[in-house]
Amino acid sequence: MSKTVSMALVRDQKTIGPLVKLLTLEAPEIAKNARPGQFVHLRVNDGPAPLLRRPLSLAGADAGQGTLTLIYRIVGQGTALLARLKTGDRVDCMGPLGAGFDLDCERPLLVGGGMGLAPLLYLAGALCPRPVAVLMGGRSQEELFWQGLFAEACRHIHITTDDGSLGRRGVTLDLLPELLAGGEFDRVAACGPRLMLEGAGRLAARHKIACQVSLEDYMACGVGACLSCTCAGADGRRRKVCADGPVFWAGEVFAL
Amino acid sequence: MSKTVSMALVRDQKTIGPLVKLLTLEAPEIAKNARPGQFVHLRVNDGPAPLLRRPLSLAGADAGQGTLTLIYRIVGQGTALLARLKTGDRVDCMGPLGAGFDLDCERPLLVGGGMGLAPLLYLAGALCPRPVAVLMGGRSQEELFWQGLFAEACRHIHITTDDGSLGRRGVTLDLLPELLAGGEFDRVAACGPRLMLEGAGRLAARHKIACQVSLEDYMACGVGACLSCTCAGADGRRRKVCADGPVFWAGEVFAL
Amino acid sequence: MMLNVDLAGIPMKTPVMTASGTFGFGPEYADFVDLNRLGAIVVKGTTLKPRPGNDGRRIAETPAGMLNAIGLENPGVDEFLAHTLPKLQGIDTPVIVNISGNTVEEYGELAARLDVSGVAGIEINISCPNVKEGGIAFGTSCASAAAVVKAVKGNTAKPVITKLSPNVTDIAEMARAVEAAGTDAISLINTLLGMAIDIHSWRPVLGNVVGGLSGPAVKPVAVRMVWQVARAVRCPVIGMGGIMTARDAVEFLLAGASAVAVGTANFVNPRAGVEVAEGIRDYLAEKGLTHVRQLIGRVNDFTGR
Amino acid sequence: MMLNVDLAGIPMKTPVMTASGTFGFGPEYADFVDLNRLGAIVVKGTTLKPRPGNDGRRIAETPAGMLNAIGLENPGVDEFLAHTLPKLQGIDTPVIVNISGNTVEEYGELAARLDVSGVAGIEINISCPNVKEGGIAFGTSCASAAAVVKAVKGNTAKPVITKLSPNVTDIAEMARAVEAAGTDAISLINTLLGMAIDIHSWRPVLGNVVGGLSGPAVKPVAVRMVWQVARAVRCPVIGMGGIMTARDAVEFLLAGASAVAVGTANFVNPRAGVEVAEGIRDYLAEKGLTHVRQLIGRVNDFTGR
Ligand SMILES: Cc1cc2nc3c(=O)[nH]c(=O)nc-3n(C[C@H](O)[C@H](O)[C@H](O)COP(=O)(O)OP(=O)(O)OC[C@H]3O[C@@H](n4cnc5c(N)ncnc54)[C@H](O)[C@@H]3O)c2cc1C
Ligand SMILES: Cc1cc2nc3c(=O)[nH]c(=O)nc-3n(C[C@H](O)[C@H](O)[C@H](O)COP(=O)(O)OP(=O)(O)OC[C@H]3O[C@@H](n4cnc5c(N)ncnc54)[C@H](O)[C@@H]3O)c2cc1C
Ligand SMILES: Cc1cc2nc3c(=O)[nH]c(=O)nc-3n(C[C@H](O)[C@H](O)[C@H](O)COP(=O)(O)O)c2cc1C
Ligand SMILES: Cc1cc2nc3c(=O)[nH]c(=O)nc-3n(C[C@H](O)[C@H](O)[C@H](O)COP(=O)(O)O)c2cc1C
Ligand code: FES
Ligand code: FES
């Protein structure tokens, strides 16, 4: 469970979707201790600008190989700098950080939107060979390169796209009630936009299915020291997304 | 004579001495207008840190090829970033800036210390096939890779090193009186540490030889707009090293 | 897309000016940028007598910024009127003269001397951190700032801009004081007072010991102060401090600036003044807006104070 | 090479502390750094009652810096004494508690409550820019700052450090006022008040509208203020603001700081506190010096003022 900061070796980096990169790092200490739902905090630069580290979820970790998989979208200057990394480069990597997903379930449904699918990929692998189903949402079929990534670990893949170009037209929350109504799941694990998480938490509660959600917030330290990322818990107490989360039981952070 | 700012193409970069790089850029507009003694002002980064451009003398310019040669020593973060440039990269290059050397002479002696030899290399090439002599000073023989660079354009190469490992032991100013006493030169052109320039100016004046010196100062704009780099002229009026210089008649900037 | 603004009576083609001390008198940059496409050129600080400026090193680079301690080197107002101003006549862009005095009277005299054609306005520098007398002293007390403004207003018919120092506890109070004294516009920020020490020689890096910090590093402070001042006064505000791109400029406009100035950015990108204006135009187009004034102060729709 | 310093009665193994609000209570960083190798740990600002902090986004990255508007989220002094402090007992490093009150009396009460074993000293925060009442208001007036210091000194036997706000016209005057009121040491700088605006939503980026600027961007301002303060008072000064490396720390020591604190750097490099101390030791060795005190204020050998 111990966290380290080290110069990870870039094994490989490739483009897997529009502005989406898959980065494989060699960081044995981190890989050894990692669990699905945790994240790493990366320096993107050695100068003072951009100054802060960037948090990225683990999309996979292989303790044997000592490797980590990250999947990220280029959205700003930090991710643009990360995208320049090439095999053989080094990158300052801190982790594994945060609390991961609870794995104590039998028939899980993973619900992810956009880049929220990254930590769920790692989770799916860890839950396999249990029968894992995933519900993935994206803007259009272009974004659903995820399908291929999840194919190995998941028995059922359900898809929605905003424009209907792949799977059901709509958003994950449109399809979720149907899936839960079937009564086949004993766990929901969700990652994506806040509204989606809240909705998933509510639907799961209605079906009495335990639900975990992975939150996101702007982070400086990533270890619970700066209080940049705290959110109000359902009980009024504040939670640190970086240290108490990013994965929470839905009822802990949403009034369901 | 017009100055431009453009994205120069890196043709080649190689190491030619301890921490010394030779960078060849393709920048046809600048090459066309350049003269020995002028410099370019380079962005080393696209972010805000390091913020300012770095001034580097032209060590050569080939109007036909459209290329510039720069020779610089890695001394800090800006030059370290420049040293990463590879063939095919682009670098934001402003120039040619400043006033160059006067070429109206017949038997010039060029006097340079350390990286001050860079602009003199361009000057030597421009003065050739006139009989050009050069007096070069360095810390030890390691630094006198310059010898090879000057061999083509110069008839006589005189060398001093601080440790005597090559040429005469001492500094350029120790050998200069002898050379000037010979009476064979009608021009001294010097670039290097301030004390050397002042000494050269004085010795040349004593022998009634016209002397030009190339100064250096911390620069922001490089075009005479910010007044970062001004120095007191011998007449009390201030001169802008970047725009009125960097090359001055010695009597203009030193009380001889 | 309309970029033109009327700044306290100075008509400008774009809201992007050059900041005093960072663009010389203009011609220094003519090879790189069409001076006619700038909103206004604010020339280097001018004093009654010529000044040689500070000795020793005058600039130092800092993280995302720079320190300068030029010390108001300038040829003096006589030389400016006799030789520099005539050279600027060909440029179809307002020329604003930034002035500095050692006494209130000197400011008045400078204003009187500069009340000539070819000068579009006066910017009062009561905030130069790099000179011993006057300078910043006027900029840190409401009473003396107001006295300077009155002296200048009493001696010129030109629009008067007062440039504030950020090195104060309450910038809004300073702004109200100079507005009450009659300034037609306020510009800010001048540089933050800073220092750098050479850890090898143990000496201050700058000949003047301390200097003024400018560049991207100071932008958050500048945006905050522009916001505070724009809410405190009715006269137009010119925002500056670390503007490198149109995005930065838009932040200042949203904060309440009616125009902006580009300073340190000129050293990095000599075309900054024009590129920032072009970028603002593109931004307006992207947002479906027709005039830059639609941006001014709009953050206040959301600040709820 | 001796790095140890006695800071107004607080014995520290190195002159490098962690800055309040940037290192939690310490254990958060225990996986990365040996807490016993820090000079002192200054814990997050503590208030009498628990505080939830500000709503909305709390940080924004800026060029070479960051803005924060945490708003003093903390569990309150009771919780601190009951649960947090006991957990710090195993650490052989002085723990200094940073306190914030809404009134002068609250500061006094906090000091009294914290006058317990395990607390090595009190740091008075009169400079938090992110809370509505108290906070920075105390830090911008000499009289109220002095009142706070007196209230705290009257209620504790511990060494008292007063942390100054940089958002003032005359930092030396503030320093003299808190020294006269009895503070044992002065720390500076807290953050510079700044603002960022989202140019797409037109909203302030931070939930609190304005926030505090920290990081390398502010270092020149911090060095200048430390220099000014160290010349104005006799009590020791703790310098901070943008320290990332030992070179930065040495600048502060040369400027007159007796110790330094590492803040924002912890976020970037969790080992910063220890690495800066190691770097200072190497620097002393390189310069042939035997004790860090040989550096303190040495820039004054050259400032000639
Ligand atoms: C725990 C956690 C896990 C994440 N996992 C992934 C992932 O697996 N794949 C992925 O593509 N993205 C992920 N993100 C979002 C990712 O951190 C941001 O997209 C990234 O930091 C953007 O940096 P930038 O410099 O490119 O963008 P800029 O907008 O230039 O960043 C400016 C600042 O804002 C912060 N920031 C910007 N967007 C976000 C955001 N959405 N969340 C948090 N901070 C942000 C940056 O870290 C930086 O400090 C995760 C975020 C968190 C908090
Ligand atoms: C007109 C001119 C021509 C030059 N030509 C050459 C050349 O041909 N080859 C060469 O090796 N060097 C040359 N120099 C010096 C060169 O500019 C500096 O070595 C370089 O800027 C150092 O940058 P840095 O970021 O690596 O060092 P840093 O020390 O990190 O630089 C910090 C800041 O100081 C400035 N600076 C540092 N050293 C100098 C210096 N000696 N002169 C001026 N500014 C400095 C930098 O530009 C930068 O703004 C020239 C300088 C001038 C003024
Ligand atoms: C080298 C330099 C010289 C300056 N000279 C003056 C001056 O003479 N008068 C003045 O009012 N401001 C002067 N300034 C301040 C700028 O006009 C501007 O207010 C400040 O630099 C902030 O803007 P920036 O961050 O865009 O540079 C100077 C700034 C620099 C960097
Ligand atoms: C996220 C954050 C929280 C902070 N919280 C406090 C605080 O509670 N009390 C305080 O006195 N200073 C607080 N500060 C200010 C720092 O202690 C320090 O004075 C300032 O950040 C400058 O140092 P730096 O540039 O090294 O960060 C905080 C700073 C940051 C970045
Ligand atoms: S990011 Fe610092 S507490 Fe969460
Ligand atoms: S560098 Fe700006 S005037 Fe010379």
Task: Describe it.
- The complex is a heterotetramer, with 2 copies of chain A (256 residues) and 2 copies of chain C (305 residues).
- Chain A is α/β, with parallel strands linked by helices and 256 residues long.
- Chain A has 2 domains: 4-97, Translation factors (Elongation Factor Tu (Ef-tu), domain 3); 108-253, Nucleotide-binding domain of ferredoxin-NADP reductase (FNR) module (Rossmann fold, 3-Layer(aba) Sandwich).
- Chain A has 7 helices and 16 strands.
- Chain A has helices at residues 28-33, 77-82, 117-127, 146-151, 172-181, 194-206, 250-253, and strands at 4-17, 20-26, 39-42, 54-57, 60-62, 67-73, 90-97, 108-113, 133-138, 156-161, 168-169, 187-191, 210-214, 230-232, 238-240, 247-249.
- Chain C is of the alpha/beta class and 305 residues long.
- Chain C has helices spanning 76-87, 104-113, 136-139, 142-153, 171-180, 219-232, 246-255, 265-268, 272-286, 300-303; strands at residues 5-7, 10-12, 16-18, 40-46, 59-62, 65-68, 95-99, 121-125, 160-163, 185-188, 192-195, 210-214, 237-240, 259-262.
- Chain C has an 8-stranded parallel beta barrel, surrounded by 7 helices. Chain C has a 4-stranded antiparallel sheet with strand order 5-6-12-11, with no helix packed on it. Chain C has a two-stranded antiparallel sheet with strand order 1-2.
- In chain C, 67% of the residues are buried.
- The chains are: A alpha/beta (256), C alpha/beta (305).
- At the B-C interface, loops of B face strand 5, strand 6 and helix 8 of C.
- Residues 39, 50, 52, 54-57, 71-73, 75-79, 115, 118, 216-219, 246 of chain B line the site of one flavin-adenine dinucleotide.
